Amino acid sequence: MASTKSSDVKLPVEWVRHSTELESITAAAKRHLLHEVSTNPGMSKDDFLVLYCDVVHNYGQLAADSAGRAVVKSRARNKLLAELPEVKTLWKGVHPSQAQGNIKWALNASKVKWKNFDRVWDTQDNAAVLAANELISQGSFERSVLKGARDTVKRATTEAKTRYYRIPSPGACSFCLMLAGRGAVYTTYEAAVGSLNTSGIGRYHDHCRCVAAEGYYTQGSNPDNKYSYELPSVVQRLAEKWARIAEVAGESIRTNRA
């Protein structure tokens, strides 16, 4: 394996490309959804559900394919492709019940706070347009599309039993920067990226663009040492800052207890 020092590692090009591709994919998915509802603003609730599921499935598959390419290129760059399991990019999409739940949540989170899902279609002539715009505004539609990529990385790296570090997106919130600063401490996908069904610190939020990348420890290093893993310089700097904060916090706790 490569013995590159963490401080010398630039942001891996395969994950940069993956992030850029996701930007294009989610933008195209939003345009597609808005175009469909604008041409048929009076579509029924059932037709809108079908449209939502179809768009999420198709663009989620593109996101899954992008993630699969990133994992393959990352392993190839680290000369591990032959040693690790094949990367599969099958994306099943979202279940209609989950899609309906996302729509209900987005409408309820809007300024109008539509608490009755059926009432929107009963009282609004352009209910589909309203729902589409709220799904995009609240970020739940984008999260559904990105799930295709996240599920692909989850499957691939869980099978390979590799570690994770978090790459913060430009303009990432302080919470996400804190998570990235923890270095390669994540041993499961759920801990690194999380889901809305978990309560741990690995939860991701709507509009979050952070990427959980696969990490490989450097040659001759101790795999139990999170800082011996190959980390991009931005993550390494955050990790060093996190370590200093943790040290200061620990000293403060010890002083207060004395």
Summarize the structure.
The chain contains nine helices and two strands; from the N terminus they run H-H-H-H-H-H-E-H-H-E-H. It has helices spanning 13-39, 45-77, 96-109, 117-123, 127-138, 140-160, 174-180, 189-192, 233-257, and strands at residues 163-167, 211-215.
Q: Which oligomerization state do the chains in this entry correspond to?
A: single chain
End-to-end gap: 46 Å
* Structure class: mainly alpha
* Major pleated sheet: 2 strands, antiparallel
Mean pLDDT, rounded to whole units? 79
Report the principal-axis shape.
Answer: globular
Treating each run of at least 4 consecutive H or I residues as one helix, how many helices? 9
Our Rg estimate from Cα atoms comes to 21 Å
Biggest β-sheet: strands ordered side by side in the sheet: 1-2
Give the % helix: 55-70%
The arrangement of helices and strands along the chain is HHHHHHEHHEH
In the predicted model, the low-confidence regions spanning at least 5 consecutive residues are: 1-9, 195-202
Percentage of residues in strands: under 5%
The number of strands is 2
How would you explain this protein's 3D organization?
- With 258 residues, this protein is mainly α.
- The chain is 58% helix and 4% strand.
- The protein has nine helices and two strands.
- Strands 1-2 form a two-stranded antiparallel sheet.
- Helix 1 packs antiparallel against helix 5.
- The radius of gyration is 21 Å and the shape is globular.
- The N terminus is likely disordered.
Give the secondary structure arrangement, pairings included.
Elements: H1 13-39, H2 45-77, H3 96-109, H4 117-123, H5 127-138, H6 140-160, E1 163-167, H7 174-180, H8 189-192, E2 211-215, H9 233-257
Antiparallel strand pairs: 1-2
Helix pairs in contact: 1-2, 1-5, 1-6, 2-6, 3-5
